[in-house]
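Handover notes (outgoing to incoming on-call)

Open items:
1. ABC3 transporter permease C-terminal domain-containing protein: sequence verified, structure written out, both below. Nothing else pending on this one.
2. Nothing else urgent.
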Amino acid sequence: MGTAATTVMVTAALTWRVSLDAEAARGTSTFEDIRNDVTAHVMLGVTVALLALSVLNTVFVSWSTAVQARRALAVTRTLGATPGEVVAALCTAQLLPAVGAIAVGIPIGFGLFSLFSDVVVIPPGAWLAVAAPAVLLTVTALAALPAWLHTRKAAGCALNAEPV
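ABC3 transporter permease C-terminal domain-containing protein structure tokens:
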């Protein structure tokens, strides 16, 4: 959910930047410039806040996934899986919902922006082509940290540990 909300705001912020150029082409007054500056600051603040919440959400979900799967992953490690394979499995488990969140977040970001603007614009595809993989790369990095910390323990310790 946090990844989708972040994608929505990033898409809306990119669309906002393109709409400013479209409004400038029509000719804007000083009042509209001031309004655009204030709105840009508000959108940046909301985007940064959602990004911070999304980072925390991804870390906590990744951590709880690693804790819940620790016995199953310890068994796979005793059967020959390397720590890198365990980290890759946990990262993949986090990436699958993130791909869906991005696929839903981009169109919702366009829709959200169109609700509040009379200018219909779409940011360049290159911007979205950079933003979507950047979100996925961030989710992967944030998911890898708890997974890597989980693989630092010996597999036998995880099998002997009391259930939580």
